[in-house]
Sequence to fold (119 residues):
Amino acid sequence: QVQLVESGGGLVQAGGSLRLSCAASGSIFSINDMGWYRQAPGKQRELVATITSGATTTYVDSAKGRFTISRDNAKNTVYLQMNSLKSEDAAVYYCYARAYARLRFDEYWGQGTQVTVSS
Fold:
């Protein structure tokens, strides 16, 4: 089984920074895309950033210039550096990975980590 474990969420003042981490473990043969979604209360889950195995990145417009996604393939870990945080960034952040395990590709999800931004 593949597990994704997130860390790094918490409470931060507006304008501050947080770094989220997500480590994948288990019977993983390879990982293609990794990324982060977020979901605020009463809103749909939103894709924040993705990164391919070749380090090509994409961002939602609201995150461009403030967030940076990166990954360490040797550690099967993806990171999200969030700077200049705003109140609208407050949400539960979920990481995902599209991984090849047990002879098939599947999407795997973390349990979520809360990001709270105080004004």
Notes: Residues 10 and 115 are 5 Å apart (CA to CA). The mean pLDDT is 96.
